[in-house]
Amino acid sequence: MTYVLGISAFYHDAAAALVADGEIVGAVQEERFTRRKYDERFPARAIAYCLEAAGIGPEQLDVVAFYEKPLTKFERLLETYVGYAPRGFASFRRAMPVWLKLKLHLPRVIRRALSGRYRGPILFPTHHESHAASAFFPSPFERAAILTMDGVGEWTTTTVGVGEGARIRLLRRLAFPHSLGLLYSAFTYYCGFAVNSGEYKLMGLAPYGEPRYVDLIHRHLVDVRPDGSFHLDMSYFNYCQGLTMTSERFHRLFGGPPRAPDSPIEQRHTDLAHSIQVVCEEVVLGCARQAWNVAGRPPNLVLAGGVALNCVANARLLREGPFEHLWVQPAAGDAGGALGAALFVAHQLLGAPRGPRTADTQRASLLGPAYADAEVRRVLEAAGARYRRFEVEDALLERVVAALVRGEIVGWFSGRAEFGPRALTARSIIADPRNPRVQSVLNLKIKFRESFRPFAPVVLREHAHEWFETRPDEDAPYMVTVAPVRADHRRGLSREEEHRLRHDTDLARRVNVVRSDVPAVTHVDYSARIQTIDARHGRFRRLLERFHARTGCPVLVNTSFNLSWEPIVLTPAEAYRTFMQSEMDVLVLEDCFLHKAEQPLGLQPWANPAEEAEEAPGLAVASVGSRALRLPRGPRPWPEVSPDSPWIDPETGDALRVTRTGATNVVTGRTYPVVDGIPCLFVSETGAPAVEDVTDAVRRFYEETPFPNYDDFESVRALIEKARRGLFARLLNDHIRYDARVVDIGCGTGQLTNFLAIAHRTVIGVDVCLNSLRLAQDFRARHGLERATFAQMNLFRPALRDGFFDYVIASGVLHHTLECREAFRRVGRLVRPGGHLIVGLYSAFSRQLHYGRRALYRATGWVPRWVDPHLARVRGRGKREAWLRDQYCHPHETCHTLDEVLGWLDADGFEFVNSVPKPAPGPGLTPDEDLFGQRSRGNRLSRWASQLAHLPSGYREGGFFLVIGRRAGEGT
User: Fold this and answer.
1) Distances, alpha carbon 440 to alpha carbons 501, 627, 745, in Å
2) For strand 300-304 and strand 325-328, is the pairing parallel, antiparallel, or unpaired?
3) Of 70, 15, 64, nearest to 39 (Cα)?
């Protein structure tokens, strides 16, 4: 047995693949293990999996192959920098340290990653040889033309060639900087999406527009020649010499600067997307015709490279091109380069044969890890999940189909994980495509992504031609092409719907017009990115057959099992976490079935102001944003005071009965108002006029300028992305239990409260300022964040029960009180034994740097961005004004040291858990850190050294530090 390990790394989507005698053993992307999307770092964990899948050690490998020639690529980078010097120095400065440290020493890096146990050769096929091998060798064809197109490899951007038997030959190539992939990425960047990850968004946006700019693109940007080659006018681009894709000349040509991410999409952007999509298709067709001629006019074509993931171009190529059959590598990007490098060495260099075949040898791309039943059950038991395990598969499938028919969204986890972005069914989110609500629910409540994005169908292979315009029994096991919904399954549109499709500026309303019998997978142009299902897909095939038998529809919605900012889930633990972090209804983990309504969480009756009771039998449907949730009918407990309610009268401590119209003391009858759904429970601090004066001054200050402001947060997705850019908020979300009771003291406009409540946990946000809370409540209501609750109160007289909460967060409020120590003691009383207190304060060390620029601002009314770097990250006038007022005009603040807060913890019965900065100099928070894992508190000298080392934070972020304590007593 001859083993070849293929590796791709250091640019985009690192991966490893193992081939034995030319047959694929395993392949997986590194991102699946590290949970860092498109992780480009060396794929050590992916390599370990591949070796484990084969049951071998590194010393048993015969060859290791890296997917490109790093020295040749380095040559191209140097020549490009020299050619554009002195422009491009910033890009050069960023790239060179990585090259000098890692990429020029790859053999050493690889051998070290293999624990020094591998002594064999390390080979370097070219980038496009790896792509070509990944396309041809697993394909079902004995002979085929080859077309590879991407951004750039070493020098090459496009190749055409031919594959026959166990050999490939690349016969023509196009060189950098003339690249269709980079041209498409330039428009991706210009339309406000991320390069190397947002191209498929641009493709999905295209059907909303018109091809108004096609002629302009041809006249100015790209010259397409009769032989299929093309030439770009580089004066319109900046990717050779800068850190952006497009130049000022490009911006003038298309009417303005690039769209800011998450800003509104204009008709101009949809027209640009449509136009570059048309140009892309034309170039692909020209290159394919050239490949057909060069390869001797075979009936088959194979494709790889990033451009091959453009499924709309692939469909047009199959429809209008000279080929009868098309096969596209489902991991067509850099990850597939690892597989291609291994296959190239195995077949081309070592002579492994390719036997006769009737289907591809990629086995539906189900090439990643699988997890045993024992692992699944261990994860669920550790999480306290409630589940049912089915011994008989038929019973499990029947339960899942019943959930789908009820309109529920199902997370599906079964067998080996998929390799690449265009193969699903092992880690999928599935739903009934006949349900017109599914598209918006999936986008906004589960994937948390742009509302205009379409979803793909899976369809039983033998029935695909009955629902989509495909050939009978056509094999399409990967999502690499689109097909229109058949005319007999389309629905006629009313005049109003026709007008909406053409003119509505809200793309979500346009995509949600019901246009077919399967509206959830029908895009605005009636296209669908199909994946056919056959015996290779195992249990998923049997599920779809059962759904077809029950409904007469052989189609399901099928999207990747992940939240939009994360890689597809790999492990049972990640699947459970994603289930709990979204509005998914059902999770199927191998033989285990979980329903969200049965989990130890949910809509806590004590959190939200109550409605009137209902007494009808059966099920009620409660609206949550655009979603309908089924809740048990019957008398709701909300109008009564639950023994588990947190609400108390801040004056007397008696229980409060909170409804949507008022909060009533059940003993005295006193009622507090509820304004816009916010219980107004504020009372002044009696007997302490100084404290009252400060509290009132702070309240008046924030009534004028709420902080932080919601200028940029038009969607839940935007809020999530902003929160996740801060590592601390991300770790809070990752580590706070889903059934926990959480209160956010001094929540301001409620961004952290709303963020934490997106997952299935209940969070109360309280603040002294009603205007800020109105903004928080408005965001909550518009986006259906049912588990967030907001209330106005004085933190010295909270209307909340002592010892009630698992997590009390007071981040950035205590230092705005006159008696910070007393405020700490008061909020600490809310924590139950075993619960955690998280406080954020201004540092007596780091804040001093801020006071210098505050003096400048108060003297001149001006602070340049180089003096306050945070201003450079602030978008929106209102948000900028809120930051300036909070940092430079606040009426009262105090500063503190870590030792001071440690003394407070000790005095109030808390154990030190963690802090930022740490109690000793060294690394700060890490993405995989257990935030609530107890750490050493260091010593006085180490703590002072750590705070001194943290001084630059006073320059960057105003000088802030955080401390976490755990109340002594029984754990929660």
Assistant:
1) 16, 8, 33
2) parallel
3) 15
Burial class (CB in 10 A: 0-12, 13-18, 19+), 547: buried
Listed residue (946, 947, 944) closest to 921, CA to CA:
946
Q: Identify the architecture of domain 373-598 in CATH.
A: Alpha-Beta Complex (3.90)
Residue 569's closest CA among 466, 426, 764?
Answer: 426
Among 3.30.420.40, 3.40.50.300, 2.30.29.30, 3.30.450.40, what is the CATH number of 172-328? Answer: 3.30.420.40
Average pLDDT, the chain: 88
List every span in the chain annotated with CATH 3.90.870.20.
373-598
Q: How far apart are CA 243 and CA 575, in angstroms?
A: 36
Is residue 58 classed exposed, middle or buried when 0-12, 13-18 and 19+ CB atoms within 10 A define those classes?
buried
Residue 893: burial class (beta carbons within 10 Å; 0-12, 13-18, 19+): middle
Could you tell me which residues are beta bridge partners of residue 790?
A: 765
Assess contact for 129 and 68: CB atoms under 8 A: no
Token digits for 910? 């808390």
Q: Are 401 and 543 in contact (CB under 8 A)?
A: yes
Q: How far apart are CA 967 and CA 63, in angstroms?
A: 56
| Average pLDDT estimate for 270-279 | 97
- Tokens 């058949």, residue located: 486
* 692 confidence band (pLDDT: 50, 70, 90): very low
Mean pLDDT, to the nearest integer, of 205-213?
Answer: 95
pLDDT in tens, 135-157: 999 999 999 999 999 999 999 99
- Collect all residues with Cβ–Cβ distance below 8 Å to 665 and sequence separation of at least 6: 649, 652, 654, 655, 656, 671
Query: What is the spatial distance between Cα 36 and Cα 33, in angstroms, rounded to a whole number?
Result: 8
Could you read off the pLDDT of 488-533 as tens digits, one per residue? 999 988 888 887 777 777 787 888 889 999 999 999 999 999 999 9
Q: How far apart are CA 654 and CA 669, in angstroms?
A: 10
Dihedrals phi, psi of 538, to nearest 5 degrees:
55, -125
Pairwise CA distance, residues 806 & 30, whole Å: 35
CA 532 to chain centre: 26
CA 161, distance to chain mean position in Å, is 37
Q: 671: helix, coil or strand? A: strand
For the chain, report the end-to-end CA distance as a whole number of angstroms.
Answer: 54
Give the CATH fold of the 3-138+331-357 domain: Nucleotidyltransferase; domain 5 (3.30.420)
Give the residues across from 427 on adjacent strands. Answer: 413
The 8-class DSSP code of residue 258 comes to: P
* 626: phi then psi, degrees, rounded to nearest 5: -95, 10
Written in H, E and C, the secondary structure of 92-143 is HHHHHHHHHHCHHHHHHHHHHHCCCCCCCCEECCCHHHHHHHHHHCCCCCCE
How wide is the angle at C-alpha 482 spanned by C-alphas 481 and 485, nearest 5°? Answer: 150
pLDDT band, very low/low/confident/very high, at 218 (cuts 50, 70, 90): very high
Q: Please, are residues 938 and 927 in contact by the beta-carbon 8 Å criterion?
A: no
Instruction: Give yes or no for a contact between 647 and 737, defined as CB atoms under 8 angstroms apart.
Output: no
| Cα–Cα distance for residue pair 746/838, rounded to 1 Å | 12
Give me the pLDDT at residue 623, please: 29
What Å distances lie between residue 741 and 159, 609, 640, 776, 836, CA to CA?
58, 16, 20, 19, 11
* pLDDT attached to residue 856: 77
Domain with CATH 3.30.420.40 in the chain: 3-138+331-357, 172-328
DSSP state of 307: G
